[in-house]
Every structure is written in structure tokens, then in C-alpha cells.
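CATEGORY: protein folding

GOAL: derive C-alpha cells
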Amino acid sequence: MRIGITIGLRSANESIWVNGIKQTAVFLAKLLQGSSKKHKVTLVNTTAVPITQSLPWDRHIYPTLQYEHVKEDLDVLIILGGAIHQSWLEELKSKGTKVVSYRCGSEFFYTMENMIFNKKVDVPPYYNVGFDQMWFIPQVWEANHYYLQTLHRLNESQVKRVPFVWDPMFITDKLKNQENKGEYRPKAGAKRLTCFEPNMNVVKTFIYPLLIAEEVYRKDPDLIKFMSVLNTQYLRQNSEFLGVINHLDIVKNKGKCYFENRHDTPWMLSKETDIVISHQMYNPLNNLTLEIAWLGYPLLHNSELCSDLGYFYEEFNIPQAAEKLLDILHNHDENWEEYRNRNRELIDVYLPTNQALISAYDDLLAGLYE
């Protein structure tokens, strides 16, 4: 099949680390290219931003074209990283092109918060009608599929839960010149904890990771060198934020907790991190989780879809998580290589080279014509 996967470039030299959506587009392209069906796969830009050599992927491996240059040459268009106008959808359908909406975000939560808190949005949501199918990665299925099924006027048979696809290609390339290629290595002494949660909405926030660290700090402060809480600089004038953090011993003790801006994930892991603590609601699998696990960093998380990776605690269970963190601090470095290797074996099910995963997507594509 001739397959397009949309990307919505916002700048000619846009970083691949801005969010996970363009990474997902490339990972899916890599998977489809690996099919024995010999699909022709193109990344399709739906904005007016020019396509240049500064893109963070090889255009010889992953051909990338503007929408107008490819719209006449598609059997399937997968709307993933860039939206299309209703008129474009209708034009594609009139030519026999199958159009799939591929959903990766926690859109119910984004929309709800934008309404309640009157947030300004650059582009208002656009609810196309006429998709052949809508595909949801498993971590956003529960909270979003009925919501978007109704808004986009789809029936139940048109809504599919599809496997997640991930590849270490971007993070390993970013770290290739770092010591040990940025992979985890034990270091003596107290440990540096990091929370990477974006704090852009209620789905992934710093509060529970910080409270987990606080529980351990109260028991044995000498185990923790410091904790970095990223993506929180904008909260420093918020009274609710200050009320929470100033109540904590790990914050009161100067030099033990830092509230910082966004940092490049590979740099932060390789330079300032020994242990990562994570928390989410209704997003129990993501790129960051797999990046950290792949590189062998001890990851304490509550993502039930990958509970076999890293160190898992249940939902909002701070005491359980604190016990797991103590175990990491005392014992992880004795088996760090075994831990990394086990993680990589488990992550194989998400890799675009996994034959079962390739077959699953071939079946989904064939299903568009049944």
C-alpha cells in the first residue's frame, strides 16, 4: 500500500524532544516499512512550514513531503501528527483513499481543562467527520475512545485499540557520544532523583513523585543527594504549589530539592540522574518510561500497562512506592546489568522490528478494506 503518516511541523528545525508525537510517526513509518507487504511509506507535513535538511530524521530512509505533493498518490492516510481540513478529508475519500485518525493524546483531559480553566489554545479542536477508522494506542484508550467516537460520529466497529510502537533510535543517537552512551552506571554515595513529568495537565504531574521522595527522606535523609523536579519553574509564584512544597522536609532542607525548567531528557539522564520517579493518571505507558527503562536507569512508576518494567507501585500508593524506593537505594546497584537486560527483553514487544507487531498493523490495514 501507499501509506502517508501526517506530521504537523511547527518550525523547520523543530526538536524531536518537544513531544512524543513526531517520534511516534517515525516509529510507525519504520514498522510499516519493515512489512513483507513492501508498503511505500511517506511522512506527510500538513502545515506550511518548509521541509528542510534540519529535520531530526534521515529523509532518505523516511521520505518526507508536503501534503499537496503526495495527496494524489495514497491508498491510506494516517492522521497522526498533523490534522487535516474537512475539505481535504472529503477530497481524499472521493478518490478512494482510506483515512485513519491515529490518537496518541489524553484529549478528553486537555479539552476539559481548557474549558474549565479558560486556557488559551493556539488551534481550536477540529472534529472531522468521515474517517474510515480511528485507532487509539492502549494508554489513551480508556478515557478517550468513547469521547472521540461520539464527537467524530463513528460507530463501534470503526474504533480500534492498536498496539503501541516505540524504538530507542532517537535517544541512543542523542547519547552516542556520551560516556557509556548515556546508559546507567552505579555511582557511590547518595543518589540523585529526578521527576520528568511535564505538569501541563492533571495526567502527569510531580506531586506524587515528590511525596514518595519525602517519605524516604524522612526515614533516611542521607540516602538522597538531591531531587530535581522538572517543568515547575512556572509554578513558583502559585500559592497552592508553595503551600504543598514548603510543608516538606526535603524542600525545607536547602540544597535537597530543585524546581527547574524543562531539560533535554537525554542530557538530564546522563548528567544529573540516578533514579527516576514517575506518576500518571490514565496514561499508563509512554515514550519516557521506555527510554528510561531501555537505558537501564532505575524507574519507579505506576504505569500498569508496563508493570513488568522497572519498579512498579500501584496507583496512588505512596507507602508502597516509598518501600520500593528504599529497595532501589539499598540494592539496585548489585544487579544493574541484569535489570537493564531484562527491561530490553520486555521492551521487544514494542519495537518496530517485532514481527508480531508488524503483522498486527498489516491486519489493521487490510481491515480497512473489509
Summary: The CA atoms of residues 2 and 73 lie 7 Å apart. The chain has a mean pLDDT of 96.
